[in-house]
Each structure stands twice: as structure tokens, then as C-alpha cells.
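Reply to thread "Modeling small-molecule complexes from scratch"

Following up on the discussion above, here's a worked example others can learn from. I took a protein sequence and the SMILES for pyridoxal-5'-phosphate and predicted the complex. Inputs first:
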Amino acid sequence: MPQTASDFIYLDHAATTPVRQEVLDAMLPFLGNRFGNPSSMHRWGRDARVALDEARERVAGALGARVDEICFTSGGTEADNLAILGAWHRRRAERPAVVTSPIEHKAVLATAHQVAREGGEERIACVTPDGVVDVADAERLIDEKVAVVSIMWVNNEIGTVQDVPRIGAAARARGALMHTDAVQAFGKVALDLSTLPVDLLSISGHKIGAPKGIGAMFVRRGVQIEPLFHGGAQDRGRRPGTENVAYAFAQATAAELAVRDREKEQARLRALRDELENAILAAVPDAIVHGLKAPRVGHITSVSVPGIDAESLLMALDLEGIGASAGSACQSGSVSPSHVLAAMGVRPEIATAAVRMSLGSLSSEEAIRHVAERFPALVRRARDFSGLAAESAALAQV
Ligand SMILES: *Cc1c(COP(=O)(O)O)cnc(C)c1O
């Protein structure tokens, strides 16, 4: 597989990460003879219950939360849906509005649209040209009509860090609940829920070395939400259905490792990322790094080279064995301008050129140096692709 061959370079850790060996080892027994249903009374059930409780406790520990504040979900998307809709359904009679931002992940944006579709009100705070949610504008939108505020901690396209503590404090002051999508923040920024003004928080397993299909939602003690699913009493009724013990255990293991390695790994990746950006900016002077001046995490960079569409550059990178992604949602091969870059006021022709490279466990010094060295040549190759594409489009017109 590409990720193990040294001549392939995976630069898409914000999309997903490989499952860590320690995580795989920790979860495998639950796909084997520790297969019980945690709701069963017998020894198989008790064994699974003990494991599930342990997993919950360890996720809570990694977040600075209490064990009853952790709810396992199928991933970040479900956690976002459950937090926002769950809170809004509970409070909408008195508080019909939600506040969010235009740079959220689709899991939040589409959920906020769903609130509007169900008769609620969606309020969207501005972002600065650097890609950071404008705190004053968010504060302006939060009043006694707002049920929940949902502002992501770290943006997944450009890596900017939002001022969640300040926005959370403003939400709390006006009686609104504060939710944050911390999928890209967890394991990257210091995060301690025992002191943060946050009521609901989402994390995802597969962004931190657990499998796809597991995540968790933090719900502060005393905060009531309506479930999205109906069924059993699992997870205090917040999320019924027989629990995925193996994946909960994987999530717990990955979460602990992410916290343990956070500072060292972020410092390592930040140094490599900065080196990569500096090399690109030196060799391709008209390249634009989105959010360059904003507070950013260390592992994400989003770069546009004017005149070169993302598809051409991605193709050139791919031919070289380097896997990056378009700066925004790439739907069936064609790149539509990123909603994040659009909200920052980036012109469409620059936005559609954006390529995101995200570093992580597979990013060795050697690999990143190689990308930095090859980038200018790949830009030239991509220019040829772009030229060819334009030519064939022109021919098609004839
Ligand atoms: C990946 C991601 C999600 C979705 O998580 P899934 O587990 O894939 O559903 C949500 N928010 C952000 C910021 C993400 O990067």
C-alpha cells in the first residue's frame, strides 16, 4: 500500500490518518473472544461493560472531562449533528436561533441549515481575511434567542485556530450553549474541558489514528439534549444502539496517545510545515499561503499558485507519488471553490487553485524535504497540464 512504500508521500492527514499499531492491538480482542454486548448480564456482557466503561473513562481523561460527560458516536459528523440538533430541539421554543460561522465543516454547516429548515434561525458570524472567526461579530449575534453557538476550534482546510474560549464565554453570558467541532484541534492544541467555557464538543477517531466510524461527543454535566435516534437506554439515552466496544476502545487508546504526543509532534510538524512553506514561497514567489498570518496549527498548509488550478497541481503531485487534496471539497473529480476561502474573500480563481497539504505521523523529515525540493518542478508540470486543459477546452469550442 502507498503509505508504507517509501517512495509515496501521504500529505493528507487532515482527511484521515492510518490506524496506529497500538490502537489496532488494543481493539483486536473485542473483535475476537471479548465480543460481548455491554447490556448483557452474563460474564461476556460484564466483560464488555468493563471495557466500555474503561474506554469512556480514558476518553474523558484525555479531554479533562468526567466519565458521564462522554458519549460515543459514529464519528465527528454524528457528534456535530447530535450536539447542535440535540441542543436546539431541546431549547427551540424559547431560543429558536443558532450561531455558527461560514468556515465550519459541512457537518456543522449542513446541520445549521437543517435547523433553518425545521423553522429555526441560522445566524452566521463573519470571518477575517485571514480566516479567523470575528469574535466581535459572533458576540453581536449571540442574544437570548440563541440556543447554541457552534464555532469550530481548528479549521480543517487552512488550519486557523478560533478563539473558542472567548466566544464560549460570550455564549455562556447570554445563556446560550457553546459547541465546538474540535475534530482538527484535539491532539493538536491544548484542550482541557475542566476549565473551558464549552458545553458540547465533537471529536473523531480517524483523524487521530483510530479507525473510521468512531467519534465522541462531550456533553457537560447538566446540559440536556434530545437524542437523534430512538431505541435503547445506551449512553444515557443520548445515543441508543449497542455500543461499538472495539472502536470505543480504539478511540480511547488513540486519544491518550494523541494527548501524550501532542506537544512534541506539533513542534516537529510545525517546523517541517514552515520549512515546506518557506521553500515554496522562495521558489514560487507568487504562491499564496492561506491564513499565513493567523494563529494556525502546525500540520496544515493551504497553498494557491495563481494560474494553476488545483486539479492540475494535484495530478502533478500524484504522478510524483505525493498525495495532497484540493483546498476544498472535491466532488467527483471537479473542484468547486472552497466555502472557507470564499468566506475569507479569496477570489474564485485563487480559491479553486488551493491545494491542502496536511502533515502527520507519516511525514518524515526526508519526505517533506523531498516535497519542498520537487514542488517548483511540479508547478511547472502542472502549468503544462493547465495549458493542455485550456487548449482542449478551446478545441472543443471549435
Ligand atoms: C473530518 C472532520 C469531521 C468529520 O468527522 P467524521 O468522523 O469523518 O465524520 C468534522 N469536522 C472536521 C473539522 C473534520 O475535519
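What I'd highlight from this example: Residues 75-77, 105, 107, 152, 156, 181, 183-184, 204, 206-207, 215 surround pyridoxal-5'-phosphate (CB under 6 Å). The first helix runs from residue 21 to 27. Questions welcome below.
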